[in-house]
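Team,

Forwarding the record for the chain on the shared tracking sheet. I've put the sequence and predicted structure together so nobody has to dig through attachments.
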Amino acid sequence: MNKTKIFILFVSIFSFLFASCTPVSTDEREDEGAFENALREAARERRLKLPLSDKDFEKLPIELQEFELTYELLDLFYLYAHMKSELGGRNDYFEQSAGTPYAKLPFGDIYFMFSQMSCPFTNYYDPSYADEISDALYYSDYGVGFGFRLDTIEHNLNDEAVIANVYPAGPAKDAGLKDGDVIVSIDRKTVTREKVESLELSSKEGDIFTFVIARDQELDTIEIKASQVKAPTVYVNYRGDIPMITVTEFTDTTITDAGTYGEFKEALEKTAGAKATIINLADNGGGSVDHCESMAAEFLPKNTLLGYSISAEIDSSKYDYKQRIDTTAMYASDFYKTEGGMAQDRYVVFIENGGTASCAELMISAVTAVRNAPVVGTRSYGKGIGQYYFPTAAGGFAGVTSSQFMDQNKESYHTFGIEPDVVRIKLKDAVDAAFEIAEEGTLVRTAGYSSTPSGHFPALARSTAVRQNFNRRDHFGAFQVKKFPRYLK
């Protein structure tokens, strides 16, 4: 994990909120309640004078600091806090978790507070999740493995194990494996795709395996030592002279420090000259806005309007900081693309399915609103909102829904999803159809956004279930880590 990056963000946010938002004096309280009493008692025990300075506030119990900071994050950045009057006062949540599923959790009152917000993507994560959240936000998947990606489109779990892509760095690359190799056996046992994937998941660093692979109708025996590998997020595969670029997520650091956008540019350079290109975003749950919008800009003329963002921001025009709602136009130049995209003249076809969400949908909507590029597959998830992720006082994270996105026509796919022009239920069928469409190069987009809810956001209702296990899929979305100047006064 990038500890330095997290620390700098934490210090800047923490200093800002303490300077501008801390309840500083009992005389200035608008009401009495458990939170004010706890604040006053903690100050008395520590012989701290009210109003509290920033330095003195940091001497309070971490539970009080954490509660106040996370409350202020909702107050300032949660899109529906005041727009839909979802956020109450501090005393509506402080010491109010008794009798709820959150009572026994660390920082249970904060978990309870976040559970009362309707958006299921606005969540609190206590410090025990810190490493996992940081990894999910900044890095692609990594761990002990073999360093290749098996074909999951042409081959089912019980089919033969065919290598679709060998990672640029890793055990498979070092051992000489190549794209298209068929894994016949491992340690003298015949394997399927499912067995290879299971074996890789259970492998430990340093484990040595004997692979028999088939290549060009010949068999070869190769030893591979499992080791730490970092997965790419962009893959290129061809049928004839048509490339399909698969993007699995959008993140800052992958096999390259330039992240997914850096990988994507390399893929476009590698496929330069292609008249048509397929962008496979099936099961891509989203990621960093900077990356997905930069990638969308590669298919568009310079200075193209990518869409709009309705965002909760801070109104700092007065000394009492409050939330304001802004509508901001997003241009390609905002995402480091001042010239025309390198693929602006290519015929492009998108593949999507129900797992295509948020930032992946943002990319599709930005391009299709301008290019009328056809979409193949099934309706997308319908997540047109984005989150800021804030490191907190105790070392946890607060994910706060702060934005809703619209395309350049000010239309939104949020809660409805993006409809495909050509419906194909199975991914293999969608891929086959996408290649046929790309080969002809004549189909234009006629479908739009669905007119019926996708079912993922019924009135933005959320589950009351307590999160037990973290999963990277919990974090799919269009997100940014919020940054502030250290001093704003």
